[in-house]
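User: Fold both of these, please.

Assistant: Here is the first one.
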Amino acid sequence: MSETAPQPKSAPRRAISRPIFERTFSINSEQAIRVIRNSYHRLMVSLYAIDVILRIIGREETVDEIESLVSQMIAECAEQLQQEKLRLEKLKADNGISETPTYTHPREFVAKIASPQIAQFVELIRLLDQLMIVMDTLWLCQVISNKHCIAARLEWQQRLQRLANKIVTMERHAHQAAYEQGHGEEVRLARLDSGLQVEPETVTEVGIFVDEVDSSQKN
């Protein structure tokens, strides 16, 4: 029986060096902390993956369209948050409240800004945190009820998570379109070169991400 010649090992793929800003923020509210934990990292990955995939299949104009759409969606959400924050701040002033609560377990958030859209989303998280602080103030001072406060906290947290989910879905569609157009191997190698998973992750209704690749390997 002849022995099979050993196959040469392929050289490790070189990671791509790309620019980022690192900015550190203190995040107080549990709702903003949950958005960071459940959505921020996956959103950053998806935005980068969309750019990688669409440039491979020669759709740079589509990259610009998606970047513009993402920026618009984030800006609209920011406007809604800002309007609610101004409304609650007026309610706080009308009730003569000047105190601001401290939080028992704030978190230090190190944001890695890899694109203008990521910078926008980080500011959205900070705005959510500011809104929650005003809301918690009004709740502690008995201006708004416990029931109302619980519902409003969840609503605003999920609003940001749904926005992140929409962007992740864009990545999945771009990935699928690239494979359907015969660019599957190029996309696979580009994702590896960029430090991305070979397949995008799935997302649930509440914004928790599930790693498809790892799940399939466990079954």
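And the second sequence with its predicted structure:
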Amino acid sequence: MSSPLPDIVRNFERVPAHVVAQAAQFQPAILADVAGRRGAVHGRIKALRPRMKLAGSAITVEVRPGDNLMIHAAIAMAKPGDVLVIDGKGDQGAALMGTIMMTACKKLGIAGVVMDGACRDSLEIDEMDFPVFSVGTNPNGPTKSIGGRIGHPVSIGGVTVNPGDFVIGDGDGVVVVEREKIESLLPLAAKKVKDEAARIAAIHEGDTAAKWLVSALRTAGVLQEGETL
């Protein structure tokens, strides 16, 4: 009988750096589409500022609401390019991170923070230009006394995130793609970008009609056979 995993899992596979670099060129929306319109985190978790962007491999953290002890441990363990993905249970009663922790993250080369919880010191984080995605802000500070887990699967915004999964975020929100899957999606993402660019160019030339619309309306029972808009 195998022994249970420890609370802190120190070693897990990450997305190779060259794959992260390629995937980071695409919008999260493009990757969500080619991943089957899944992996998008609930919109309540959003960029602290719309311009903020991040991409990297997840180092997952589970904490009790309002306690950031395990986040400090994760920062000490993280590798450059990692994204801290924190399951804070959606709590907004206290900030889990602020300027001091974010400054350390930036200095260590951590790619950004995604947390199902609140942060504080938002103006200073804005000035730092460090990418943070959260459910909001709160000036209350956290406690640092309750255990949790690092390197285990977590759930944030309705999406399961495993350690090492690819995480990308921009002003639209955050998308998570399984580590084993992200590289295979890159050709599909490139094709979608090309196809969308061609469609937009056609619209600019006056071809505004959605070719699929009438058929879809008939299938939905809105239009009868032979009927058009």
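The chain has a mean pLDDT of 96.
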